[in-house]
Amino acid sequence: MGKGMTKSETLNALAEKLGKTRKEAGEMLDAIVGLAYDETKKSGEFTIPGLGKLLKKHREARMGRNPATGESIKIAAKTVVKFRVAKAAKDAIL
User: Sorted alphabetically, which SUPFAM superfamilies does this protein's record hold (predicted)?
Assistant: First the structure.
């Protein structure tokens, strides 16, 4: 498997595809990312149609095991962010 695109390569490709400057493409990308963060924090989810959905999920406290010693440890409750890939994206890629 090869290496993915860098941010610079992504901005160049976006700018070329949209007929915008690299700076405008960067501002658009930053705006989408900022919107995704804000909306996920506020409502718990953000959907990018055709790509997927960011979800904020609460994990309860649980017991785990230290793999080095085998000792049982308590893992604290926490909130995590998950990304669920849309079926359209899976179909397009696979």
Answer: IHF-like DNA-binding proteins
Query: Residue 16 is encoded by which pair of tokens?
Result: 């070329």
Q: Are residues 39 and 49 in the same domain?
A: no
Note whether 49 and 11 are same-domain residues: no
Determine the Cα–Cα distance for residues 63 and 24; give it in Å rounded to an integer.
48
Contacts of 17 (CB under 8 A, 6+ apart): none
- Span 22-43, pLDDT tens digits: 999 999 999 999 999 999 999 9
Global pTM reads 0.77
Token digits of residue 59? 């994990």
Residues 33 and 71 grouped into a single domain: no
Pair 13, 33 in one domain:
yes
